Amino acid sequence: MSTEGNESTHNAPSLEVHQNNSSPRNSPPPPDNEEKTIHLRFLLSNAEAGSVIGKAGSTINEIQSQSGARIQLSRNFEYFPGTSDRIIMVSGTVDDVLKAVDLILSKLLDEFYVEDGGEIDPESKIRLVVPNSSCGGIIGKAGAIIRSMIEDSRAGIKISSQDHSYPGLHDRLVTVTGTLAEQMRAIELILLKLVEDTYYQQSANVPFPYAALVYNGMNYGPNGGGGMYPNTRIPNKEERSSSVTIGIADEHIGLVVGRGGRSIMEISQLSGARIKISDRGDFMSGTSDRKVTITGSQRAIRVAESIISKKVASVAER
Fold it and tell me: Signal peptide location in the record (predicted)?
């Protein structure tokens, strides 16, 4: 379920807030792990990130104050590769991290999932970011550990296959689906595995390492403004500029453009590609699809195509 600077942090004010007991966990972590520090990264949409930050950082400060955990978010438009989602990292003791995640998920459930009059607990999903090398500890021999976690928590737990579209990406997504209580139990079990993993602990040193993979040379300065850093290397085949034209149904073109051109600008910034859309009535031959021409390196084109197709698919699935 992603603020300014590479690691934007909001310091918690010293104020007392009543603890939210929305989903008490089944059992406290074992005493020997309770004091160990751990971190948890997961994905948020831009809207969800805005909700967690709150006006002038008020919500994120309150969550930090209530939980004792530290919360960092990737910059606006710094997304996990292949998605349009930002990364949030919660760090602290196991117990503090679980309290903070509980508060965050409770807030998102209230704002984004709950329908009026619903009598059953709503289900949602959270996508955790876990290094590829740490996934084996969650899966276990012949899947024994993950099966045990699923039985204990009653949540759905799925681990994505490694995405080779982004050379240098060493993280996978662990999707946890269920009610809030089921998700929290599953996350607790996963954290208690990860807290024993030395390599996982070290991965907190670079919480958001994706800019180089996704931005394709577009770097953000301290004020969030884009700037191209000069590169004197001879571009390899992957980096040479080329163009691809794809067709997008006329009724979906607004998704690509966005209000006031905001969406097309975001896609361009994220991918490093230039995007041009044909005039109204100028269609791909024999179709009613508008032409979307993407120009840039092969990697930039792939990223732009992936973001555009996801935007269109999200509407088609409704």
Answer: none
